[in-house]
Predict the structure.
Amino acid sequence: MLEELGLHARLLTQNARGPLSESVHDARLLIKRLRALFWFAKPAFSASELNRLKSHLRKASHLLAAQRDFVVMRSVLEKLSEKTSKSSDRATLLRIAQTQDGVVASSGKPDRSLQKAIAIFLATIKQLALISKGKLR
């Protein structure tokens, strides 16, 4: 299961050329799946080991939080522009959304945040696998 999650994470960083919102969503799902595995692994690991691993995943989630908030904001602006009756208000809302897209695209930060989050995720999987191997001996 860990290998499968790791493979999905690696593919996500390689194929992050599509809409960034989808990549962020997929990365957040991978983090949630790994957290779910922690629940099953709870009896086999000490509380300190699991807490350390969970803190790494929290760090990865925090890196993705700003991008997730941006996606939500963009969606709200688009919905507001559809619901407004004045064409000038509609145009203004769309312009704001497009301006934000330009700021995010030029800064490159979401891509770096996604890459950092995936790197933390993969390191956490590796640590979990190493701890598991030590327990199985």
